[in-house]
Amino acid sequence: MQLFPTRTAAHLSIAAISVAGVGLVAREPAIVGWGGAMLLAMALARAVTLVSVSRIRAAGFEMLWSGPRRVVRTGRGSTIEIEAEVRNRDTLAARYVRLRPIASSQLQITIEPSAGEVMASGRLKVKVSVHAPRVGQHGVHGLALEVHGAPGLFEVPLTFANPFGVEVLPRPFAAWLPSPRGGRSKLLASSGRPGRARGEGSDMRELREHQPGDPFRRIAWKASARRGILLVRDFEREERDVVWVVLDASVELWAGPLGRAPLDLAIDEAASICARYLSRGDRVGLAVYASTVRAFVLPDQGPAHGQKLAHLLVTATGTHDASRSDLDEADVAVRVLEHLRPLDARGLSDLRRGDLDRLASRADAVRPRAPFAPPPPEGRSPRERTLRRYLAAYGIESPARAEAERHESGFMLAEVLSQIVKSKPKPSVVHVVAPAPSEIAQEKPVMDALRRLSRHSASVTWSMPQFDPGLLPPWDPPTRADGSASEEVAEGPRRVAWEEAAGVAAEAVLVRTRVAVSRSEAVLRRLGVRVTKIRATTTKRPDAADPKAT
């Protein structure tokens, strides 16, 4: 157990040392004794604090989440409230000076009350407000309580490890959260208005030139005689669209502030397209790719399929895989070790330093207690996959790697489009949410795939990610390697200078980005694709939306 002196204790200690020093210089035993007595009193206060806090912990000082659920689902940009309860089973009251969350950095959390007192044999209700600016499966790992032991000169941090999961879905799918999956909800699959497609029907679509394989009964003999060319009648039938949504989830698209990165907006755009066509009763498929195919789901319809697509948009865009993460196996092991220690019955006291095999085994044994059940991420070894799966199961973030993967993802797009062409049922609408091919070598395979889609009468729409929101103010101040805020630009003249430099740098990057986007749009138009722009709808910063949020 660690004890930290309060400011009063620090001042008293400095005063005691100063008095003792003055007594030694003056050779006055009374003054030296006075200073020594003050130091002895500080040591006694430390011992009393240690005993009182140990008594509180032994009596059953604990934190519990209210309600039976350990996972909540919410839409991106929303704020939810979770209730917790701090119980003090001791006969003495416990006063705390700070209550802070231990949670994923992808969540922004405030707690009320942040300071107070837990009565003897009493309970304290705590409200935890969680703002979710980014999709994903994030964890609230517990609460840290700083207790003042008697006589109040020392603080003792107490950590309550009680994992809680927050699954953040794309904003357009927020309305699907309370949606039922059976019974009358199945009627939604047949709602909406069907579209028209070429095939057997009663309505004539057009007259076109005869092609090998056309049946003779479709030949328009009179029209053929008038024009001197063999023409056939093309009919159309009513059917629902078969829609494919293709999303580029390259790691560099995560670059930017929470909720304003290009991939944040791209995921919302892909979810909006899926929700719109599903509400019409169309069949919707989803393909998520980067340097590899992250998800490929055949078209289907209905609310249950919408839930499946929403879940894939959350999990397939994550960065827990070794090829997408900035953490190597040693970094992953450190995070697992720090998180696992309070959950382990022995506190990992019997685990030798550097024994990653045993750490992976212990982590795998504790993983069933996690709020999420993800599939094993990609890893260079079974041990690394086990450790990375632990991070994903408890919602511990894994930062995206710094190296870009646009070179591989450009060629992967052509493969995904070719696979869509071969899939059945045949696609009628394809929405691509991705940047344009960045290299000339990537344009040809993508163009060939688009031509094959056109021959199958599929319309292609391309939505370009928006980079502007991540480069506009307000800008987040720089942070240290551990994620904590830097005190060098916290306030004062350095803060003003930093904001001015940040504005100039952001403007320069913004100009280059807009030029690159305009060139990309020209490339897509040369490919014969209809280009649209994603609406720049971002989540409000908590400090602007809610003065209580941080």
From TrEMBL:
<dbReference type="Pfam" id="PF01882">
    <property type="entry name" value="DUF58"/>
</dbReference>
<feature type="transmembrane region" description="Helical">
    <location>
        <begin position="32"/>
        <end position="53"/>
    </location>
</feature>
<dbReference type="InterPro" id="IPR002881">
    <property type="entry name" value="DUF58"/>
</dbReference>
<feature type="transmembrane region" description="Helical">
    <location>
        <begin position="9"/>
        <end position="26"/>
    </location>
</feature>
<keyword id="KW-1133">Transmembrane helix</keyword>
<keyword id="KW-0812">Transmembrane</keyword>
<feature type="domain" description="DUF58">
    <location>
        <begin position="206"/>
        <end position="330"/>
    </location>
</feature>
<feature type="region of interest" description="Disordered">
    <location>
        <begin position="185"/>
        <end position="209"/>
    </location>
</feature>
<feature type="compositionally biased region" description="Basic and acidic residues">
    <location>
        <begin position="197"/>
        <end position="209"/>
    </location>
</feature>
<keyword id="KW-0472">Membrane</keyword>
<protein>
    <submittedName>
        <fullName>DUF58 domain-containing protein</fullName>
    </submittedName>
</protein>
<feature type="region of interest" description="Disordered">
    <location>
        <begin position="365"/>
        <end position="384"/>
    </location>
</feature>
